[in-house]
Specification:
This protein is α/β, with parallel strands linked by helices. It contains 10 helices and 12 strands. It comes from uncultured Acidimicrobiales bacterium.
């Protein structure tokens, strides 16, 4: 046991088979790691511009098209730096003059702040709502891009991706960092759906992936033609050129690519996005149902329709110290159930991406009950 946590042992029959419930980095499947080890002698430590790596990128691009049922003309683009890095890419290569932002948590707020500080762009149109809720986008003829967040990882709030205006009246840019691979989405409702691999795709971070519509590709070309100065590493045009060659502009993490590809193909083999989304919903329904019946736990998000199917946030009664609970869980091998640090609530936050077994989620609820009882 950790010396910083109470000396409480969770019975073996209440312990999940795998105790990783982090919102990112998330659980990496053992089978994926075994496949990486087997491929390592001819894959790791090789050039990312040669066939062993380029074939993995090609499989990723094709698999993403299949998973998300992308219409003809969409392209799957990769770049180094993660989804937060893609915010810089977007403000250079996708927002022409002014954007609208829905701000309802740390990550949606962060993108809003970055755009507001961009000297070459007009002040954004910002629509806010309190943590635990989400606002609605509103058509605005003065903006050329709408920035939405499919799942706000910090608060456990999800929203349906819907175009606020006709496609020709503004690009829809969707931060899908914790949603992609675990939530349903209609590709007709977005122009760019971007995310990173360390959450639903069971890999490491350091990479961004963007699913780009023909309208988004045209916007990239239009902005490039204006002569706007764009650093090469932030140029979506450069990333697109490289993606068409099944590579990235600069060297990617080869293990990250491989693990992501394995996870993607595992999801496809099991039934695709519908299977993955249903599996995640099963897990969060276990958590929300347990919390609603509990005498010390309550779902943080009051609106059932806005409750995330991939990241559940559960408030604990003020008489129970959530930090003590998470310390005991961690000492027993159940990790990363702490709330988002800036939210500052007496809360548990549990991610249940496709890699997480629903049976383990049910065991987790029993483990929490045991810990709370022992602490009382």
């Amino acid at each position: 046991m950790s010396s910083s946590s109470p000396d409480i042992t969770i019975p073996a029959d209440l312990r999940p088979s795998d105790g990783r419930f982090g919102s990112g980095p998330s659980k990496v499947r053992a089978d994926a790691m075994a496949a990486l080890v087997a491929a390592a002698p001819t894959y790791l430590g090789t050039s990312h511009r040669q066939s062993p790596v380029k074939s993995v990128v090609g499989r990723l691009r094709a698999g993403m098209g299949e998973l998300f049922a992308l219409p003809e003309g969409f392209e799957v683009v990769f770049g180094n730096g993660g989804a937060a890095y893609f915010w810089d890419v977007a403000l250079f290569s996708l927002i022409e003059r002014r954007s609208q932002h829905l701000s309802f948590g740390n990550f949606s707020e962060s993108f809003t702040t970055m755009v507001a500080n961009a000297a070459h762009l007009d002040s954004p149109d910002v629509i806010e709502s309190p943590a635990g809720t989400h606002p609605e986008a509103k058509p605005n003829p003065d903006v050329d891009a709408y920035a939405l967040t499919h799942n706000e990882t910090s608060t456990g709030v999800a929203m349906e991706v819907l175009r606020p205006a006709p496609a020709e009246e503004g690009l829809v840019l969707v931060d899908a960092t914790s949603a992609a691979g675990g939530m349903r989405v209609d590709p007709g409702q977005f122009d760019v759906y971007y995310f990173s691999p360390q959450k639903g795709f069971g890999s490491d971070g350091g990479l961004w992936i963007a699913l780009c519509s023909p309208a988004a590709l045209a916007r990239v070309d239009k902005i490039k033609a204006t002569g706007r100065w764009i650093p090469e590493s932030l140029s979506l045009a450069t990333a697109i050129e490289n993606a068409r060659l099944n590579q990235t502009y600069n060297t990617p993490g080869l293990a990250t690519l491989f693990l992501m590809c394995d996870q993607l193909e595992w999801i496809l083999a099991n039934g695709g996005l519908e299977w993955a989304a249903s599996r995640c919903e099963t897990s969060t329904n276990i958590l929300y149902g347990w919390a609603e019946k509990s005498d010390f736990a309550t779902p943080f998000v009051a609106d059932h329709a806005a409750r995330s199917p991939v990241v559940a946030t559960i408030d604990l009664d003020d008489s129970i110290d959530a930090k003590a609970v998470t310390k005991v869980l961690r000492a027993n091998g159940i990790v990363d159930t702490e709330p988002y640090r800036r939210l500052g609530r007496n809360q548990l936050r549990v991610a249940v991406y496709p890699s997480v077994e629903p049976d383990d989620v049910a065991l987790l609820t029993g483990a929490i009950d045991h810990v709370v009882s022992a602490l009382s």
